[in-house]
Design brief:
The chain contains 2 helices and 3 strands. The protein is α+β, with helices and mostly antiparallel strands. The radius of gyration is 13 Å and the shape is globular. This is Threonine/serine exporter family protein.
């Protein structure tokens, strides 16, 4: 199924961004648990955030931690979420 783009407002760090980051972490956790390599999991996480319109995101995957940061603009503070696996 096709994903819906996030409706952007003046406050891009509204409730939609944390939900997308949480979804991205959950997908990454499932892929990592299923045996995918860290590089493939990072690529998939990046693709999820891009599909929701979060272009300025950076996933990081190790064997014990998944994290993702999104910075709405160069002057805004980044929003970061992480999961320990």
């Amino acid at each position: 199924p096709a994903t819906e783009a996030i409706q952007r407002t003046d406050d891009e760090t509204g409730p939609a961004v944390p939900r997308v980051l949480d979804l991205t972490l959950r997908i990454g956790e499932l892929l990592l648990a299923g045996g995918e390599g860290a590089e493939d999991v990072e690529a998939a996480m990046f693709a999820v955030t891009r599909s929701y319109g979060l272009d300025r995101s950076e996933p990081t995957v190790t064997f014990t931690l998944l994290s993702i940061s999104h910075q709405p603009s160069l002057v805004d503070d980044p929003v970061t979420a992480s999961r320990t696996v």
